[in-house]
Queue: 2 jobs
Job 1
Amino acid sequence: MNARHPGPTTDRYRLEQMDADADLMVLNFGPQHPSTHGVFRIKLILDGEVVVRAIPYAGYLHRGVEKLLEKLTFAQGVPIVDKNDYVSPMTNEQALVMAFEKLLKIEVPRRARWMRTIFAELQRVASHMLWLGTFALDMGGALGGGSGVFIYTFRERDYILDLFEMVTGGRFHYNTHTIGGNRHDIPAGWDREVFKVLDLIESRLPEYEAMSSNNAIFVARTKGVGVIDKDLALGLGLTGPILRASGVPFDLRRDAPYHAYDELKVNVATATAGDCQARAQVRVAELRESIRLVRDGLAGLPAGGINGGKPIKMPQQFKAMAGQAYVGIDTPRGELGTFVVAGGGDKGTAPYRCKIRAPSLHALSALPWILPGHTVSDVVVILGSLDPIMGEVDR
Amino acid sequence: MQGLLRGLVYGGLIITVLMTATAWGMWLERKLAARMQSRIGPNVVGKFGLLQPVADLMKLLQKEEIYPIGADRLLFDLAPFLVTTFAIATAAVVPFSADAVGADLDVGILWVLALGGLMVIPVWMAGWASNNKFALIGGMRAVAQSISYGVPLVLTSLVAVVFTGTMSLSGMVKFQIAHGWLALWPPGPGVIAFLLFYMALLAESNRIPFDIPEAESELVAGITTEYTGMKFGLLYVGEYVHTMVGSAIAAVIFLGGWDGPFHIASGLHWMVIKTVALFASVYWVRWSLLRFRSDQLMRLCWVYLVPLSVGLVIFAALWRHFVLS
Amino acid sequence: MDGNLASSGGTQAQAWMAAVGFVLFSMVIAATMLGAAKLFAVRSKNPGSLRDRPYECGEEPVGETHIQFHPRYYVVALFFVLFDVEAAFLFPWALVLSKLGVAGLVLMAVFMAVLMLGWLYALKKEALRWQ
């Protein structure tokens, strides 16, 4: 932190005119930049290397997903949202499907709920693994130690994608969640493979921690950097690991249980510092917790059907009465909510409006508050610690 | 005139060997990094990918030369030329063996330090002339880092001068043959001085964890952002040559140069082994560590390394006075 | 061309000439590589296009690149000069140290102590902070 440039950015519009000041430099950080995690642009106003003001611009990856969902029937919408949070497609599907189920008042069988839990937690392991790698990449660069961590964690993520492939046949576009249950049951012997992968990842975790969160340089780069205090986190609607790292033990899995979380006890990892190091610690703790949850989930997986009611032949079969529903679930990035409004009548086969509450968008809204006072190098680290996925920010 | 001729002949020999070694050093680095990351590394061009540097050279030669709008064309062209020249010219005074030395100056260490210090100028030139903000910030960082780490570099080489009582590099080796390697002999301080010297050299040649001038996750490519083709290649090669020559100099000053446990002919092989080992260790470090922030690097230098190296100089003087004489 | 000139009776003047020759050769190498690039490099059919614009992450550059930096960066340069001049004094001292005796040691210790006092002052004043 730098004492000369404290405080948040308040008057946004005056900033644009500061360009004329001879001592300040205006630097476009992104969209085409190695470490903006996709296409994200921050306009940085620099005093030397210190950020005075930061103005984020999103929207470079806008694909009109929400509009698209209005044009497709309920069942057709599911594969569309896979691409929103492209690091964690499983949870995207779940958030959408659960909102539709709530709207259409469809019960999900117990086995399907447990399977969704297992998928969600496996996906969390994969997502946090990728985050750890890219975070190290932000700090160590593609031409340094960071790329080593990246390649290792990417490999572990790949094992999990292999597991998903065994179930769904896809590595990315799973389309395995249907309204009322799951499309694919898990194949025989799948649990053995899962245990094998989880054991492998768990045995390697200490090594990755030694290369990242326990590394002296890592600590020097993250400690006290990008502090989001409790008030700011709550005020901006931050959720997930970022909120938990700021000292708020809020986790939808525990506080508003869905799936099988009412039966599987979730230990919520928290930290109080609110800096990049705290966020890293929370995520690594969540990795371990997720591994445990998958193990418990597989051990207690109930038998039975995986699809509620009769099998669906035609997508148009789903007809909604006029009404609305909101479901929020805890994804690796925070609360992913789907708010769906149905018009009823003739138009009842598709949502009238579908709004997706993306946790990454809220995370990025913290940038103008926490960037000023940090150097350009810290911008990269702070951005990485927020773990934004531009696909879901811009939708 | 005889001297000039000798410089050209020896220069031709040494530079050719040096450039070849550097090209293969790049290949070695890529292979090492690949092994460290469970990859294969270059393996397509030639056996084991050994011809990869040649392929890279061919590619760089064909690339279009782009001058960014608003660039200072003269400085833009001059910078890579000077970087390479200075990097290679440093090798002039390095005694690879008792005979294989381009110019055995009696102030060899000053030659090394002077050329290392000059290196700042073309790097800043490149940063300024590109008319690019990333390059400019990279240039600023490079200047600050180079001149800051120049201080411990000068002071630790002063330690070597105090111990050996000579400024000629081959003189230092001869002293070490007689009294034992500097990194080993005054048991603690010698190795500290060696590590400091080597660290400062790393900082001068912009290697992780001292690579903030071209921190690609922050500054895209730092000073080389706007460079294309062979001009980029020269900046790149300049850094590798700098690292290679720096390894050789560290081997000469602190690791006894061509001295070794047993002797074959001129001892050139010892020098080669030491240089390559140091060179590889740079990349070992590079591919395992994360990067410091610029102000942390400056702090590390000015708050810890500078007083430490001043202390080492004083220790060396006392040692010289009370033990050696 | 046998053996080490400086040690086998050759003068330092010759060694310096050799150094000049070495530098000349390295210049030739660098120039050759640049020249070869001029020869082989492809040329754009429409120079001066959008591609020649300085890279700023795909956005149109806003504001000046060549701005005035804050003078605090200058302080680092000042310190460098200070310590390097000190080192320039120390090199000749180091060479004749064995002939100077205790007096040489004491004098240089005083000199260094003064320098380090200045360093301590700068440290206290936070002048050594780079940001």
Job 2
Amino acid sequence: MALSSRAGSGQESQESVRVRLFGELVRFAAGRGYEFEWPLATGQTVADILAAIGIPEAEVWMVAINGTKVPGTTQPRAGDQLMVFSPVGGG
Amino acid sequence: MSNGYWGKIMRVNLTDGTIGTETPPEQFYRAYYGGRGLIAYYLLKEVPPGTDPLGPDNRFIVAPGVVTGVPYAGAGRNSYGALSPLTDAYGEGEGGGFFGAELKRAGVDAVVFEGASAKPVYLYVHDGEAELRDASHLWGKTTGEVEELVQEELGDKRVRVAQCGIAGENMSRLAAVCNDLTHYAGRAGLGAVMGAKKLKAIVARGTTAVPVADADKVRELARWMVEHWNESSQGLHDHGTASGLVGLSTSGGLPTRNFQQGHFEGAEKISGQTMTEKILIDRDTCFACPIRCKRVVKTGPPHNVDPKYGGPEYETLGSLGSLCGVDDLEAVAKANELCNAYGLDTIGVGVTIAFAMECFENGLITKEDTGGVELRFGNAAAMLEMVEKIARREGFGDLLAEGSYRAAQKIGKGAEQYSVSVKKQEVPMHEPRLKHGLGVGYSLSPTGADHCHNIHDTGYTKSVGSAAGWGVLEPMPADYLGAEKVRLLMYNTIMKSANNCMVICQFVPWRLEHLAGLVEGITGWNHTHFELMKVGERAINLTRVFNLRQGFGAAEDTLTERFFEPFKDGPLAGARVDRDAWQKAKVTYYRMMGWTDDGVPTPEKLHELGIGWAIDYLPADARREAGA
């Protein structure tokens, strides 16, 4: 991935993260489905992005970037995969 | 006139072939509902200590509940029970589908089998009539073949079939009971009880609607679910029970390589989402349920997975996938097909194979033992070969068909440490080092390790959801094991016990008030959530008394040693169950339940639940301990 795609590089209009919703969070995606691109603004944290999408914090069990669990204060980079999980039971 | 039940419990003596009927009073149904409550009642009264689980004196009980057979989401489920040949304790399992509803609509509330037939038979129940029929021609056939043959023989495609499979015939302690080919009461080895009794199947056909007290109220509730299920179960519909598999791996709580790890590098390859993309051809459902969480999958060569056996649940993708280190989705789908065709519990089989893989990798067993099979983690072909061998009790499969606990005893050399089981029942695909309350629940479960009548701590870390109705108002961490968590665990076990008495699916997002409303609308009883919880608690206490009499007390409420050891790597590296906190939580649960510190229900508690009669069934030492 090009360095210019890093968050805060000043190329926000071209930059985005790939959001993947798991479990029951699709209902907050406003018809975007389980996976979609989301524009990334300078300095945005994971929590900012979830709030912007409209996913209530209480509905989120865990967030990961590229497969690694992260806190909501993390700032993703353009091109990152933002994985958002709701609590899971059994089956 | 009664509503929700017929007042008829069928008694079938397989030794002499007689069929009779018991007609319990309304109080019986109100106190126990059906399902677990009914099973625990009959087992306590009729199966004394010393009974051989695979002998004629054991009972095999088929038990829908007072709300089964009425069309609303979640009603497509029924219970089976017996003294378990796997755990030697109280055995119970639930299966979905259509069979339970059909049996109820055939005019029967439950069937209690005793004795053993000299030759294979099946019971055909149709609109109030019942007959035992020869099943010699069905013996040795796969579940799919049996269903087809029975439907042909009876000239009715609409008959519903519950059966034991070849694994049950061979009395594998991992044998399940199969409903409608794609729904399984997998746990506790109940299929082996059917096989031991030469009871191949129970076939039901019913055309009579179950009488309902307040049809408008029930219709209104059923409609509410049709209109609202997708607000909280869309993911379940779209990707099935495995929609959360990647999340569990990411959190570090996906059972991997026999619970040595909690993170599986191949998780994305075996997830519910990948299954949807790659091999899903349809979604299936149970009686009257709009959610359609069941999978139907099909593949081409080399496995040619047959869609008639449905598709794998999360538990199956975990136990035969990540737990065996296998990331080949089509191979896991094939293993699921084989287990369903032979009538095996996918959890028990997967955990037992993973156990054997760890034994193999540590040199406790070799290719000489396995018949040349390189039984290593990640070897999908070896996993599939073992499933076949377990079902048929061939070669090394004969030993594994006993389950991991008994196999470990036989292998020796320290193999016991690799059997991840509680009360001899293999642990399902939920990790106590992630969900700490669930670990305590594994220890306390009357049927051995079980995830269905348990808490899933991760559901309460951000909000309490419906637990607010129990007065639990604050979320709490998944690894917290203090008194507030024990309280939440206790309410969960009681509620889910009540669900298993009704009998209703745990996945349908009914609110607490709806459940009491369903019972009230169907039966006409002036019903509250309090009464529903008391039914669940009553049933737990009956199972506890039964197990105490079988020799299962506080010392047997154990947890596999592995969970007290820290993960060596992954997102939960260093996480372990704190032994002192776990022990304290266990005793706190006993006390909150009104039991002694040794886990014995006190006479006062049994009286409080209206089951003072059960005091007489406590063993003498427990009676003394409880002050009876």
